[in-house]
Amino acid sequence: MSMKVGNQPFFEGVDQAIHNSFMVNAVSSAQDGLRDKKLKATVGDETLGDWENWRNAGEEIRAFTLNHLDYYLKQLSDNFSARGGHVFFAQTVEEAQGYIRKVVREKKAKNIVKSKSMVTEEISLNEALEEEGCNVLETDLAEFILQVDKDKPSHIVVPSVHKNRQQIRDSFKKLGYKGTDDPKELAGFARKTLRSKFLEADVGITGCNFAVANTGSICLVTNEGNANMVTTFPETQITVMGMERLVPSWKELDILVTLLCRSSVGQRLTTYVTDITPGEQDDTVDSPKDFHLVIVDAGRSKALGTEFQPALHCIRCAACLNVCPVYRHIGGHAYGSIYPGPIGAVLSPILGGYKEYGKLPYASSLCAACTEACPVKIPLHELLIKHRRKYVEGGGTPPASEKIAMKGFGIGASSPFIYKAGMKTAPILLKPLVHHGAIEKGPGPMKPWTHGRDLPAPSKENFRAWFKRHKETEVQKTNKETSD
Amino acid sequence: MSGTIENREAFLENIAKKLNRESGALVETPDWTNQPQWAVYQNSSKDQLVEIMKKASELIHTTIFETTADQLADTLDNAITEYGGAPVIATNDHRFSDFGLTDVLRKSDAYIWNVNNGHKNIDVAAQANIGISIADVMLAESATAGLFNDKDKARSVSLLPVTSIVIVPKSLIVPRLTQAMQMVEKKVEEGSEISHYINFISGPSNSADIEMRLVVGVHGPVKVAYIVVHDL
After folding, report:
1. Single pTM value for the model
2. Strand spans (E) along A357-469
3. Which region is the signal sequence (chain B) (predicted)?
C-alpha cells in the first residue's frame, strides 16, 4: 500500500521518533506557530463574526455534499467533459496509475512537473511514472526537498517539517548547491533550478483542493506559485482528486476556501487561489491544451453510509495535527502513513485497513483538541473510539497485549476470588518496578504507556478496602453526632 | 469540443448504493442555514474598503500606491522606475488605453502580450523584470487581486516577472471572496462562459517550508505592488 511510510511496526516507530530530539523540537515549534496563527485568523478575528458559524457552515456543506456525492460527481464530470476535458473514474490505486501511465505514454511525455498533492502520494504516482521512463519533478519546495532525499511527508501541509536547514543544505549539495543554510538562499536555489523545468515540461500534474461541480472547475490553494507554473506551461494537465474533494458551486467554494486558508496556515487567503476550467481558446499561448481529471476512490467509499462517513468531510487543513499532543511527541513518520495525526489515525484504517493501520487510533489521548480544532467539525476523537471498538471486536488484529489484558480483565473481574487475589497481589508483584511512587518503565503491555508517562503504582489499599474503612468511619461519625 | 468520461457508471452506482440513494436521482442544493460570509464588511463604503485593503496588504508584504485617473500614468511611470525599470511586459487589456497608459508603456519599451507571437510571449515574460496587469476584482479583506485571465489578459504576466504591478480601479473593490464568487455564479446563472483561469493573488509568492521561516519570493514574483485608482 502506497500510503505507507517506512516498514516499522507502529510502536517501534514511536520509540525511534521520541528520541529524535531535533524532530520533536521542530514539530513542537511548528505546531505552536501554526496553532497561534490559526487562532488569530479564526476565533481571534472579530471581523468574521462568530467562528462557530463558519464551522457550522462548513459542516453543513460537507455533510450535504457527501450525502449526495454521486449526484455532484456526475455533475462535475459532465461539466468538465463538456468543456473538452477527459474524466477517468478510478476505483483503485492501480486503475488511477494505469490511466495516467496511458496518457503519459500516448503523449510520449518525458518531463513531468508536479505540484503538491497528497492523493498522488497515496497512489505512488511518481514511482509509476518513473517506470514509464519519465522524469517526475516535485515543485513544491517541501516536496522538492523530500524528493531529493527520497523521503516521505510527515505533515499534510508542511511535509518536510521534520528536516532542519543543515539537512536541507546537505541534500541540495547533491544537486550542485554551494551556498549556506540560509532558508532564503536555499529557496532561491530551488527557484533557479525549477524555473527552466516548468517551461520545458510536457505534462503538469496537480492535486485538487476543491473541484466545483457546477462548472467543472478545479481550485488550487497554494503559496509558492509552483502550482500556477504547473498549470500554465505544459501542454497537458492531469489533475488527480480524492472523490470527496468537491463542492456544489462557487458559493460553497467561498466558505471552504476561507476555512482551509485560515485553519491551515492562518492566512486570510493563501497567496494563490487559482480556479482552472478546461476549454481555453485554441490560440491561448500559456495554457494546457489537454485536460484530464482522475477521480480516485481507493477505499474512500468504504466509509460511505457508515459511522465513519464524516471522515470524508476532511479538507486537509491539518489543524488537528497542529493541536495533537501525540503528534507533537512522535511526529508524522511514526504513524507509518502519509496521513498522520488525528485525521490520519481515522482515515488510514479506512483506506488501508485495520491490519496495517489498526493501531493508529490508539495514538491519541482522546483529549478532543482535534475535534475542537476541525473547521468542518469532524468528531475526530469519537471516530477514534469507534475505530478502537471495531478493532477490538475483530475488525483487525488488536495489539496482543490489549487482547490479553481485555481477556484477563474479563476473567479476573468475573471471578470474585481471582479479582480479590489480583487486587491484593498487584502492589507486591509490581513493587520492584516502583520508583518515587510511580512505574516509570513498565514491561509488556505497560511499555508503550510508561514510555510517554508514568503509571501510578497500585495503592497498598485497594478501593474495596478503602471504601469499607471509609464507610465505617462515616458510620462511627454519624453515630457520634447523633449521640451528642 | 467534448471530452470523454470513463468508468463512471459503476463508480457512481457503488456510491449511490452505499448512500442508500437511487442512482441518478436529482438533487437541489439547499439554501444553507449558516451563511456568515455576507456579514463581513457588509456596510463598508468603497473608501473604508480601501483602508481595510491597505491594512491587509501590510500582512502580505505588498506595497500600495494611491492615485487618481489623471495622475495614473505618472504613478505607473514612477513605480516602474522604483522597481528597476525594463524589461517590462503588460497584458493585452483594452483598459490600458482606456486609462491613458499607452504612452507610459511605450516609454518603458513594454512588450504587450500578443497571441500571434506564440511562444515568444512566454520567453519575454520569463525575462521581464516587471509585469503589469489590471485587476478584475479586488478583495479588501485579504488585499487580493482577482484576475480573470484569458488568452490576452495572460496569466504569465503576473507570474513570471520578478515584480508584479497590478492596477486596481477603486470601483472594483469588494469586501471579500464572497462577492467575487457571486460574480462568477452570476455568469453561470446567465449561461455565459466564465474565465478559464480565475486567479486570486495576495502578494508575492512565498514559502515557510524550511524551518517555518518565511521566505518571500519563491517561484512566482518576488515583489508585488498595487496601484489603487480612486476615481476609476
Report:
1. 0.89
2. 434-435, 438-439, 455-456
3. none
